[in-house]
Amino acid sequence: MPLEPSVPALELDGVSFAYRGGPPALEDVSLRVEQGAFLGIAGPNGGGKTTLLRLALGLERPVRGTVRVFGLAPGARARGAPRIAYVAQRAQLASGTPVTVRETVETGRLAVRGPFGPLRADDRRAVEQAIDRVGLADRAGAPLRTLSGGMQQRAFIARALAAEPALLALDEPTTGVDATAQESLAQLLSGLQNELGVTILYVSHEFGAVEHVVSRLVLVRGRIVFDGDPAALPAIWHDPSHAH
Description:
By secondary structure, the chain is α/β, with parallel strands linked by helices. It is built from eight helices and nine strands.
């Protein structure tokens, strides 16, 4: 299914959402993200930024409003539909098993080839290319658990890239890693976005490491209180009218 350039990668129209029995997490959110954007989604804990991402991924459904990803309902299985890859918080992914970096990245090909049969030559090429793109070629055979937090997260990003996605969504990818690793990951993602043209949605409550590489920043506090150039954010951030 070829992508029409005019179709937004993500579109939310009047979206509201509440978890069962809880207060509204998002109210009347409208957002349009063009293909190829590097969008930062920031906000305080409980502000709704991860909920917004989960709606975009089809992991939750809005109470009101509509969500479209490349013009389709989230989670649509249309043949040839653009693929979406998701990198969850590192704490949810880290494992004590002896799985290697390469074996971790190979699982990313399941979205392309399905769960059955051996890896084909094109699958192996895609895996090695993804590992190389994140700078882990020399650690491909190493057990994942032996890598630093920042290097583990690179492996998970490589796993996402192995699926050859049109949209890459990351939820708090720098949780638990030091400032140097945060900066390194930000530069890695910026390079990938420039090289591959992939649309990136980057969720974080600590946006300092990426505010200089994202092309646009959305600040979420139950609704969108800022949407634009990250350089214009400080005045909004300290505006009492937007306090939570």
